[in-house]
# Entry
Amino acid sequence: MNPPGLSPPTGFSHAVRAAPGTIVFLAGQTALDGAGRIVGDGIVEQFERALSNLLTAAEAAGAGPGDLAKLTVFAVDVADYRGNAAAIGQVWKRLVGGDYPAMAVIGATRLWDEAALVEIEGFAVVR
# Structure
């Protein structure tokens, strides 16, 4: 839901009304590969891996991309994230589609994995 009077959203929805269902809480995901190493040289590559990891966790709990209700993106360099917003948006559209959950981007001085540039967490509602 994007009510009039609020600035037009780009890459997020101002509000999402989830239908009754099962809530799936999704832990923060970084660009870790299966061996526990951060992969990806830049914010776009790491965002893609982190989002892929989040979607894999969601799928294991029975949630699909369309069930995402709220995500928080933690970025160690918000200016870099904003500067690559178009490319990050293309990754989103390829992996998730054209629907957006309620989202926020938060600047962080560092993440648990020191090499991580971005971490994504949130929740989904399986209808």
